[in-house]
Amino acid sequence: METVKYYKINWEDESADQYVSWGKLIWYFEVDSEDYAIRQIEKYENSRRLKYDLANIGDEFGGLGDQPFDMDEFMDFEIIKDEFEEQWK
Question: Model-level pTM greater than 0.70?
Answer without folding.
Answer: yes
